[in-house]
């Protein structure tokens, strides 16, 4: 529907149609660019037959030069004996070159041209376009290790900071075209990987999967490109993305009368505009188009719009200010509460920064301070420029010296601000400037030592740059600095806005202007600055894009009064005027708002600046000896800050929503209405207390309220804050410094609550707390928010800092992270006699170990570090339990020991620890070795054979057990297995400082435990004897991270993820990235010398025995249900063996009552037991896809039908097939029903899907569990339905929804059958028009996920198990 609208709108307003297509000619780089902008108009413009040609600017020339220089420099670094330059080789000879190439060769600048047969056979159209000659920068010739074929690895060199989708497009196009060219060359093929060579790593290009992109390329060249070129109305919107496009001026002119007249217009906003049209109007789209057209007419003739609907659009908060701005020709203040700028700023600093694209470095800057009485030591204006004659030199010394000068000046300013505790902010116009300043400071850390000869001065420069970064740019990028740093004295207690204010963001958030596309500085100056009109045209030109750079190129930088200096001062003046005008408009708006409000309604008055500017206080850089530990400390800070920031953003959004819509709009806080006070009696202590009953106010239909109710936690941490449901209440919580109170339980300085229960079917929340300050009134509304609590980050940081002291330089944790392979091979001081080892190995059969379990047991005796890679259903916990019992019985029991043996056990969750301890106890009892060791649980009370104690009492307990054992007749040393969380182990260490540590530590679920948090438990390992076993599956969901962390070089360990991923290294101690999870034919997994995979798949239980019990009219199939396992062999290797391959679902279809909607064929096909993996494709009619939530509701309906049919016709097996412990209800919900066996698991990525499916299913009496993928990890069921029904996947959701780990967990829960419910839009994601095309390949996460989706899709098609369901 949206497409229809866009097509219509564009057709109506008319992009002036391109000339009748003749034969268009394209360069691959031109096409790649249009893909980057996702703009069909650009596609047309980039062909050379178009009359409008781009103009080469100074900037474009400089970028071109920079690219060429990088490419040439790269060529010089390559081995001359194996690299051949084909620059002068005629294109006609290139194919012959390829016929003769040998592995090991590198081909530089070999050019190609597609033959006519390509357009005839492949494109199937010879009349529309031709591709120009193309030249991949480098082609490395490799050899396929299995087939011994020659393989072409295609690389393009790009002088960029990171790989863009346009780079990937270019390389994938080369791969697609070369595959055609080499198809008839024997023994030669194109590699499944391609590469982009960046200046950040001169040794290795960044590699990515091109094979997954080939279908997209084929679709693009055979269908999309032709369709666009033949279309009279290509799609385009002139908006923010056009900033860097060559054709921006042209499109700005042509945007008149199109939706692009509204600045920063997006497809989402168009969608919003569409929703404003009354539903009963048949011709609504036409009228909307007219309305938008009229908006542009307003600009010229000021006429009043004619249409009724325009009145509606006008009233929309989204469009009304722009309409007003166009009609009144003045800036209009929108009225959003802002966190970009705070109130109470007393000092303003303005920065102008000019970048020279030739070197990608700053060539000129100015800093200006306002609002300060300056002493002689600090001027109020600092400035500097590189002599423009340096721009042509490859020598960059002049740039580095200028950067050092800038950094010193900035440092001095901050120093002064700290001295006077200034309330300041720094202003500049665009986000590009902010990024450029940060890059300049970061670069200085590595380039200053190369170019600044005076060592003392150089150290000072580096130190200043670091301090500036820490005080102004705290973020994930700093983790990549070669010399790591962390804020040692972070003022986490403050609630403040950023000091760095991007003026464009400020205007975009709150000022509506009659400017199409986006806010260019020159336009803003015209609208916002009164004095601008009086200056000369020359000055106005300097405000244009690259204006200052163009002036710098012209020379004349030295004189104080040079053109450049005057222009930079003029820029600063304009910034100041913009800010002044902004404040004036904000004040005017607030005054108007106050006049409109009654005195008694002040509680809902608008607050534009909810944050107050805090006095500046210097943050120093922490100093410890280890780079790795420093990064981990900084990582913990960043996670803490990000999780708090998330809460704060939600609160600010509520302030905005209440300001605009009152309580009629949805809120992030849970909206409650006070009902009554009641008495609550604590069962444990029989103490009466006062509680409040609050009715939940339903705010929406799509389940958001239920999601909020489900997420409530009952504890005694005062985790919730209750405030009045009005602006005053939300302002109170916005200014609450959560971080200051994050580890406190008392004196919290705000009204905090505990959730006691949720009653009346989820409609009433019972809260306990000190209600008095709120003076609760029956029927009055309140908002409940979560408080940010965190008792653990400080503990982790303290341990890491302690390890970072030079005297602890060789801690076990540091050694492990640095070189796990080396640590693993260290001799253990208390090693075992050879004969004991040999006997013990023979006795593994007593414990019925499988072959792979035996291999791991033997390896664990050889190495200090053993990583047990346990795929889904591989019996990882069972193996660990067998191993512990075997080790104690036959290794420790055979040694003459006098010292107690302590085996520590931990995991990410308490549930996993309890599970492992219970398994150990059960094997101990089965093997009859109860007397051999004690099991101790720290934390939860466990089974009969276990001792429960608190962490601080463990030392006394072990001492007492040991002395009892030694005094017994056998006088044997004690063995104990102790299970506790990492936090329990931190307490053990603290209370037992003289302790030598555990002899062995087992970390289960290690793929979910953060590296930083694992330090607490690895710190408890005996330094000379301790062994570490970690077990998990790094291909399932890892730890939940609040930030997206930068990709580090392979020589760096993966610090910002799980301990398992971090310790898995190749023999060369290189990190192992998760990409390439799909095994190439004939290749087996190799995750380094310390990792061994469990090869058994125990998930499928045998049901063969019960088959004879069924009568003949039962429609069931006996199948070898090896299928699921076969599918997973593609990921876990060919030797992943199904131990119970015969399991299948069984149905008695005589019990089936045909549903009224007549879907019996589809339902039977979906549940068909012949297929262990079925894909249900929901096919939506084009006309019904625009309804809100259509995919969620449809999916819920389909899933409900499948589940009900299964439950109706299912035939019971002779024993439970679903031994899962999860119950349907959260413990907070009051329920008396015991949990029944779960027969179906429904897995969803989003909570909204979960809620819709639960609603559609109704009461299934606990036989069906519906939950998110994260919650389902580690569980299993006979039938699993994985729900991935999406019509569109926006860019921001790609990484989440395409995360291959998420898909892997969802589909690997099944014991008998997995049903995937999805859409064609997902299955054809890169080629589907509604979706994000090349964005899929932008990150490793989404590219890997797409690879997994392809595997599933291809498998289902091959097995003919795809069921189409028309909606
Ligand atoms: S300026 Fe924008 S709309 Fe115009 S061609 Fe470029 S990307 Fe497309």
UniProtKB/TrEMBL annotation:
Domain DNA2/NAM7 helicase-like C-terminal: residue ranges: 1188-1319
Swiss-Prot/TrEMBL keywords: ATP-binding, Helicase, Hydrolase, Nucleotide-binding
Nucleotide-binding among keywords: yes
Annotated SUPFAM superfamilies: P-loop containing nucleoside triphosphate hydrolases
Highest taxon of the lineage: Eukaryota
Molecular function in Gene Ontology: 5'-3' DNA helicase activity; ATP binding; hydrolase activity
Identification of the protein by name: DNA2/NAM7 helicase-like C-terminal domain-containing protein
Provenance organism: Phycomyces blakesleeanus (strain ATCC 8743b / DSM 1359 / FGSC 10004 / NBRC 33097 / NRRL 1555)
């Amino acid at each position: 529907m949206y497409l229809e609208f866009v097509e219509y709108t564009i057709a109506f307003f008319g992009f002036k149609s391109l000339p009748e297509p003749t034969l268009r000619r394209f360069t691959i780089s031109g096409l790649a660019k249009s893909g980057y902008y996702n703009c069909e108009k650009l596609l047309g413009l980039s062909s050379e037959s178009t009359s409008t040609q781009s103009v080469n600017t100074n900037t474009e020339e400089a970028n071109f030069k920079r690219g060429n220089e990088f490419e040439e420099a790269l060529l010089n670094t390559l081995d001359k004996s194996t690299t051949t330059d084909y620059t002068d080789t005629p294109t006609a000879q290139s194919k012959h070159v390829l016929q003769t190439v040998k592995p090991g060769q590198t081909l530089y600048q070999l050019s190609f041209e597609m033959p006519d047969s390509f357009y005839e056979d492949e494109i199937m159209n010879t009349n529309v376009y031709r591709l120009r000659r193309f030249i991949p920068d480098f082609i490395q010739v490799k050899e396929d290790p299995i087939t011994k074929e020659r393989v072409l690895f295609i690389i393009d060199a790009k002088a960029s900071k990171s790989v863009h989708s346009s780079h990937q497009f270019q390389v994938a196009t080369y791969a697609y075209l070369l595959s055609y060219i080499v198809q008839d060359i024997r023994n030669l093929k194109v590699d499944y990987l391609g590469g982009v060579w960046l200046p950040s790593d001169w040794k290795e290009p960044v590699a990515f999967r091109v094979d997954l992109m080939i279908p997209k390329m084929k679709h693009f060249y055979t269908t999309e490109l032709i369709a666009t070129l033949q279309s009279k109305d290509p799609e385009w919107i002139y908006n923010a993305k056009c900033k860097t496009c060559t054709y921006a001026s042209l499109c700005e002119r042509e945007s008149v009368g199109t939706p692009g007249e509204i600045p920063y217009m997006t497809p989402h906003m168009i969608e919003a505009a569409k929703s404003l049209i009354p539903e009963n109007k048949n011709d609504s789209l036409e009228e909307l188009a007219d309305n938008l057209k009229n908006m542009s007419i307003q600009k010229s003739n000021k006429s009043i719009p004619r249409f009724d609907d325009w009145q509606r659009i006008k009233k929309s908060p989204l469009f009304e200010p722009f309409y007003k701005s166009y009609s009144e020709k003045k800036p209009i203040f929108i009225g959003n509460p802002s966190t970009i700028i705070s109130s109470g700023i007393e000092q303003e600093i303005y920065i102008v920064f000019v970048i020279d694209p030739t070197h990608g470095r700053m060539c000129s800057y100015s800093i200006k301070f306002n609002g300060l009485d300056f002493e002689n030591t600090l001027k109020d204006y600092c400035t500097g420029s590189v002599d423009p004659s340096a721009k042509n030199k490859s020598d960059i010394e002049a740039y580095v010296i200028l950067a050092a000068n800038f950094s010193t000046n900035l440092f001095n300013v901050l120093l002064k601000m700290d001295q006077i505790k200034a309330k300041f902010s720094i202003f500049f116009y665009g986000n590009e400037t902010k990024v450029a300043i940060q890059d300049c400071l970061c670069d200085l850390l590595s380039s200053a030592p190369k170019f600044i000869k005076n060592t003392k001065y150089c150290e000072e420069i580096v130190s200043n740059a670091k301090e500036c970064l820490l005080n102004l740019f705290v973020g994930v990028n700093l983790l990549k600095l070669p010399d790591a740093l962390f804020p040692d004295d972070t003022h986490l207690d403050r609630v403040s806005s950023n000091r760095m204010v991007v003026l464009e963001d400020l205007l975009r958030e709150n000022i509506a202007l009659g400017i199409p596309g986006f806010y260019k500085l020159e336009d803003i100056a015209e609208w916002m600055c009164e004095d601008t009109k009086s200056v000369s045209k020359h000055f106005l030109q300097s405000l244009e894009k690259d204006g200052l750079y163009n002036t710098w190129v012209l020379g004349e930088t030295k004189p104080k009064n040079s053109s450049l200096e005057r222009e930079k001062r003029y820029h600063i003046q304009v910034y100041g005027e913009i800010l002044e005008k902004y404040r004036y408009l904000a004040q005017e708006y607030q005054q108007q708002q106050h006049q409109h409000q009654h005195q008694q309604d002040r509680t809902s008055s608008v607050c534009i600046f909810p944050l107050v500017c805090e006095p500046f206080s210097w943050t120093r850089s922490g100093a410890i000896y280890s780079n790795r530990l420093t990064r981990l400390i900084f990582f913990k800070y960043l996670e803490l800050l990000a999780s708090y920031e998330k809460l704060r953003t939600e609160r600010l959004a509520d302030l905005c929503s209440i300001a605009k819509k009152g309580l009629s709009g949805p809120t992030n806080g849970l909206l409650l209405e006070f009902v009554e006070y009641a008495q609550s009696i604590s069962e444990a202590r029989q103490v009466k207390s006062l509680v409040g009953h609050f009715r939940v106010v339903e705010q929406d239909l799509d389940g958001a309220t239920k999601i909020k109710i489900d997420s409530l936690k009952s504890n005694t941490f005062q985790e919730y804050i209750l405030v009045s449901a009005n602006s005053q209440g939300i302002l109170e919580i916005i200014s609450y410094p959560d971080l200051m109170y994050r580890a406190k339980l008392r004196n919290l300085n705000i009204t905090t609550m505990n959730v006691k229960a949720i009653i009346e079917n989820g409609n009433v929340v019972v809260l306990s707390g000190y209600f008095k300050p709120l003076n609760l009134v029956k029927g009055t509304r309140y908002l409940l928010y979560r408080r940010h609590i965190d008792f653990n980050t400080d503990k982790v940081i303290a341990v890491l800092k302690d390890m970072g002291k030079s005297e602890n330089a060789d801690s076990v944790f540091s050694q492990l992270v640095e070189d796990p392979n080396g640590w693993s091979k260290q001799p253990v001081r208390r090693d075992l006699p050879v004969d004991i080892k040999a006997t013990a190995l023979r006795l593994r059969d007593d414990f019925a170990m499988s072959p792979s379990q035996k291999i791991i047991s033997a390896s664990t005796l050889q190495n200090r570090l053993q990583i047990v890679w346990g795929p889904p259903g591989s019996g990882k916990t069972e193996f660990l339990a067998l191993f512990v019992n075997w080790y104690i019985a036959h290794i420790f029991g055979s040694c003459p020991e006098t010292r107690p043996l302590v085996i520590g056990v931990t995991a990410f969750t308490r549930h996993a620890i309890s599970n492992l301890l219970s398994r150990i106890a059960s094997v101990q009892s089965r093997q009859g070795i109860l007397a051999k060791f004690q099991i101790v649980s720290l934390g939860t009370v466990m089974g009969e054979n276990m001792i429960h104690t608190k962490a601080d009492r463990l030392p006394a307990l072990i001492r007492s057990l040991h002395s009892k054992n030694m005094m017994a007749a056998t006088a044997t040393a004690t063995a104990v297995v102790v299970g506790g969380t990492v936090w329990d182990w931190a307490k053990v260490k603290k209370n037992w400082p003289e302790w030598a540590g555990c002899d062995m530590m087992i970390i289960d679920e290690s793929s979910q435990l953060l590296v930083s948090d694992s330090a607490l438990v690895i710190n408890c390992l005996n330094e000379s004897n301790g062994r570490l076993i970690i077990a998990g599956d790094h291909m399932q969901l890892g730890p939940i991270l609040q930030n997206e962390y930068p990709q580090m070089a392979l020589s760096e360990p993966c610090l910002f993820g799980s301990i398992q991923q971090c310790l898995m290294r190749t023999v060369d101690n290189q990190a192992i990235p998760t990409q390439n999870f799909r095994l190439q034919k004939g290749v087996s997994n190799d995750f380094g010398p310390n990792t061994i995979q469990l090869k058994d798949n125990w998930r499928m239980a045998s049901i063969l025995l019960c088959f004879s019990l069924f009568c003949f009219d039962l429609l069931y199939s006996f199948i070898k249900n090896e299928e699921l396992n076969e599918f997973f062999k593609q990921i876990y290797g060919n030797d992943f063996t199904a131990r119970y391959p015969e399991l299948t679902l069984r149905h008695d279809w005589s019990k089936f009552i045909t549903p009224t909607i007549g879907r019996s064929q589809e339902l039977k096909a979906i549940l068909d037991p012949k297929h262990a993996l079925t894909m249900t494709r929901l096919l939506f009619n084009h006309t019904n896809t625009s309804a809100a939530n259509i995919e969620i509701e449809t999916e819920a309906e389909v899933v409900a039908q499948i589940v009900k049919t299964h439950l109706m016709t299912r035939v019971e097996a002779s024993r439970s097939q679903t031994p899962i412990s999860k119950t349907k209800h959260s413990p907070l919900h009051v329920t008396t029903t015991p949990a029944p066996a779960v027969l179906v698991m429904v897995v969803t990525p989003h909570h909204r899907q979960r809620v819709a499916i639960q609603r559609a299913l109704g009461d299934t009496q606990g036989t069906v569990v519906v939950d998110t993928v994260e919650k389902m990890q580690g569980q299993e069921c006979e039938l699993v339905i994985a729900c991935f029904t999406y019509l569109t996947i926006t860019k921001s959701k790609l990484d989440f929804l395409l995360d291959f780990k998420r898909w892997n967990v969802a589909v690997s829960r099944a014991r008998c059958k997995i049903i995937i419910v999805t859409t064609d839009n997902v299955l054809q994601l890169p080629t589907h028009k509604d979706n994000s095309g090349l964005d899929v390949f932008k990150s490793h996460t989404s590219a890997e996920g797409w690879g997994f989706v392809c595997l599933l899709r291809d498998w289902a098609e091959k097995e003919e198990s795809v069921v189409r369901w028309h909606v």
